[in-house]
User: Which sequence fits this backbone?
């Protein structure tokens, strides 16, 4: 089994806030002691941190659930509960995080040490010391902690490389990577020897360096899932320069120029923006018979079919086996990298705005529906949040919740929908009777 994994779906759950406490002062010489219940502690966040030592998402194959600790409950003497520590989850550089439900991109993590909160912990509930008023100096009201954010995430790794090697299987990409870097990719005389991306660092004779990724061989129809399909095409998206490796010896019986057109078509079909990246054509296997004649025919065909206003891509004849022409190719690649800016993978419109975790202020406070048993069902983020933070063990808290519902207009809305005295009203698993 391959130990490379570049996609994963996981669930994260931030910690709940601690419950507030109901307590009163009971010292011997303090008459009429007032409320003294403290607030609950904050729940822990789930935070992704980029770790440059990681290369794959393999850790997420076996551990798909990440849950932060909840905050401690409030205590007597007005003491707050302790806040929970954040849960730190390490991810490799180049990890894109999406909300699995909406498909929106939350963040693109590319810098070592970069942090992003993927799930916010709930705030602690207030203790009864917070509810004291001149009219009610000794309230028996406290709040439960706010629930932590829970979401399902889709992780996608797109390796960080300056240069990407693309081409049909067996054109010599892995051999080229092995001779220009210290990488040791698998090399064999059969198709799809490379089944995972390989990464290596190149240092030119002039002292410049850059990262090169050898991607598994593409074939016609790859953008529709043929062969290895789109499984590894994502890794070329971060590259700034593409080295298009072509077998000029035509040892596989294919036409070099047709190969060139076919691979570009697959890149364009997968992501039109890949064609914005500058390409260098690497005419490989020039030590083989017929390679020189095929290169002449290739150049002629390329010139005939290229737009006269577009600049022809550079072509470098090389032989990975004899190391012919490699230094010139690497110097030209480094020079092209120097003048090629980074390509932004995502527009701001594609990124989900990071906002305060809570209910949407623009969303309706509640929604009313009818269940099969004729019960009225109340739902909505704001209403459900009030519900879970209400301590139903305390009568005063229940009365406060009833007043909040009335203030939100729930009573009037139920009445307008035809609710009658004694009808059953349901919020989650909690049921009560409507009193007109």
Assistant:
């Amino acid at each position: 089994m391959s130990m490379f994994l570049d996609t994963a779906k996981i669930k994260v759950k931030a910690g709940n806030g601690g419950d507030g406490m109901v307590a009163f002062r009971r010292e011997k010489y303090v008459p009429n002691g007032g409320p003294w219940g403290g607030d609950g502690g904050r729940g822990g966040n789930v935070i992704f941190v980029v770790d440059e030592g990681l290369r794959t998402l393999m850790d997420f194959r076996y551990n798909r659930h990440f849950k932060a600790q909840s905050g401690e409950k409030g205590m007597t003497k007005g003491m707050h509960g302790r806040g929970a520590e954040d849960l730190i989850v390490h991810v490799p550089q180049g990890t894109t995080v999406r909300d699995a439900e909406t498909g929106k991109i939350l963040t693109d993590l590319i810098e070592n040490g970069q942090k992003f909160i993927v799930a916010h912990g709930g705030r602690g509930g207030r203790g009864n010391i917070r509810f004291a008023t001149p009219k009610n100096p000794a309230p028996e009201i406290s709040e439960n902690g706010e629930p932590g954010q829970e979401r399902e995430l889709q992780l996608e790794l797109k390796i960080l490389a300056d240069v990407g090697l693309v081409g049909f299987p067996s054109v010599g990409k892995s051999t080229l990577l092995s001779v220009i870097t210290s990488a040791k990719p698998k090399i064999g005389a059969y198709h799809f020897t490379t089944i995972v991306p390989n990464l290596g660092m190149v240092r030119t004779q002039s002292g410049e360096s850059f990262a090169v990724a050898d991607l598994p061989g593409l074939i016609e129809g790859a953008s529709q899932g043929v062969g290895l399909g789109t499984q590894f095409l994502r890794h070329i998206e971060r590259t700034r320069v593409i080295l298009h490796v072509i077998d000029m010896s035509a040892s596989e019986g294919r036409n070099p120029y047709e190969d060139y057109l076919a691979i570009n078509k697959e890149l364009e079909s997968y992501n039109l923006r890949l064609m914005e990246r500058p390409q260098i054509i690497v005419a490989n296997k020039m030590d083989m018979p017929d390679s020189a004649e095929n290169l002449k025919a290739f150049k002629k065909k390329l010139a005939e079919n290229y737009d006269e206003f577009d600049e022809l891509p550079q072509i470098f004849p090389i032989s990975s086996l004899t190391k012919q022409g490699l230094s010139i190719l690497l110097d030209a690649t480094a020079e092209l990298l120097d003048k090629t800016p980074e390509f932004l993978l995502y527009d701001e419109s594609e990124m989900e705005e990071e906002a305060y975790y809570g209910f949407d202020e623009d969303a309706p406070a509640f929604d009313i529906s009818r269940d099969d048993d004729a019960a009225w069902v109340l739902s909505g983020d704001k209403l459900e949040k009030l519900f879970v933070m209400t301590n139903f063990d305390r009568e005063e808290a229940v009365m406060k919740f009833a007043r909040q519902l009335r203030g939100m207009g729930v009573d009037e809305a139920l009445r307008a929908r035809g609710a009658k005295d004694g009808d059953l009203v349901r919020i989650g698993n909690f049921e009560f009777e409507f009193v007109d």
Q: What stands out?
A: Residues 97 and 130 are 39 Å apart (CA to CA). DSSP finds eight helices and 18 strands in the chain.
